[in-house]
Specification:
By secondary structure, this protein is mainly β. Helix content is 12%, strand content 47%.
Length: 306
């Protein structure tokens, strides 16, 4: 078993260990940062970055298994996400895409496994820019395929994606916000791939207006994204996507009183592009880990946050 295969196995086992460890922590201590991450991206359901930041010194770790892969693919994809609040204005993030053969289709259990992609990013929140009407932040993300993953698990491209995002809270309806995000996706080939698609690897720009609405444990989102390569590439492509979604934070009695934050997401996607139209349904499950609950006592956590 090579190094990436061992790492993939350790990631899966860590999910089980950490989940069990946190289930035994003191339930009287509130989960740090449970409020200001309520509209963090949940890819496939809600893709936009908002100006909201992870609290300083908080490390939020998420696990997103692609459950639909059990039916549609030979491999189950497990995406590990990390967000760290460096200061009140700086946030760092990373995603590690792992995969393993689940054994329910053509490949036997754990016949192939490893890491398919690594992504890192940073976001900066402006204090006074466009206030008081807009909260504003800017950032950049970088992703690259790694290892020797099956071709269908990555797009084979290296991505550099700078972005800017703005959000407005409606005073009369504080649970409703409007936002506007825009940015670039600059691509280069990282893995040799044979394709007849003339649009493959094209640089694009995008703009996404949308709305969010939080109602108790359920958040509702609506995104309208226009993406085009006009002015950036020899090909003039466009894609318009409407994505309504919802995410439900499960109550403790449905998660065996685990201290992890479990989220179920459901989203629809309707698109129109220069190559035709599309429609899809996405489901996601995500859990958040708080590592300080494993390595520190609840009293130490409370003291550290004062």
């Amino acid at each position: 078993m090579n190094s990436t295969s061992r790492l993939a196995c350790w990631l899966v086992m860590a999910a089980l260990v950490f989940s069990r460890a946190q289930a035994q922590t003191n339930p009287s201590v509130n989960t740090p940062n449970s409020g200001n991450d309520s509209f963090a991206p949940l890819p496939g359901i809600f893709n936009s970055e908002l100006p909201r930041m992870t609290l300083p010194a908080d490390l939020r770790v998420t696990l997103r298994p692609r459950i639909g892969d059990i039916q549609n693919r030979d491999h189950l994809r497990l995406v590990w996400g990390l967000r760290y609040g460096l200061t009140t204005q700086w946030e760092l993030s990373a995603d590690i895409d792992s995969y393993l053969a689940h054994g329910l289709k053509d490949k036997s259990l754990l016949a192939t496994n490893g890491i398919s992609q690594l992504s890192v990013g940073a976001k900066y929140r402006f204090n006074d820019f466009l206030e008081p009407f807009w909260d504003t932040a800017a950032g950049i993300k970088f992703s690259v395929p790694i290892g020797h993953a099956p071709e269908e698990l990555t797009d084979g491209l290296r991505h550099i994606a700078p972005f800017m995002t703005m959000e407005h809270v409606f005073k009369r309806h504080p649970s409703v916000t409007g936002f506007l995000s825009f940015g670039l996706d600059l691509n280069s080939r990282a893995v040799p791939r044979t394709t007849t698609d003339e649009h493959y690897g094209a640089d694009t720009w995008f703009v996404t207006p949308g709305l969010t609405w939080r109602r108790g444990p359920v958040k509702y989102t609506l995104e309208l994204t226009y993406r085009s390569s006009a002015g950036l590439d020899n090909t003039d492509t466009y894609n318009v996507t409407v994505r309504p979604g919802m995410a439900w934070t499960l109550p403790p009695h449905l998660t065996f009183n685990s201290r992890n934050r479990w989220v179920l997401g459901l989203g629809l996607s309707a698109g129109l592009s220069d190559q035709g139209s599309s429609f899809g349904v996405n489901t996601r499950i995500q859990t958040n880990f708080d590592f300080r609950r494993i390595f520190y006592t609840p009293k130490a956590i409370t003291t550290a946050r004062r």
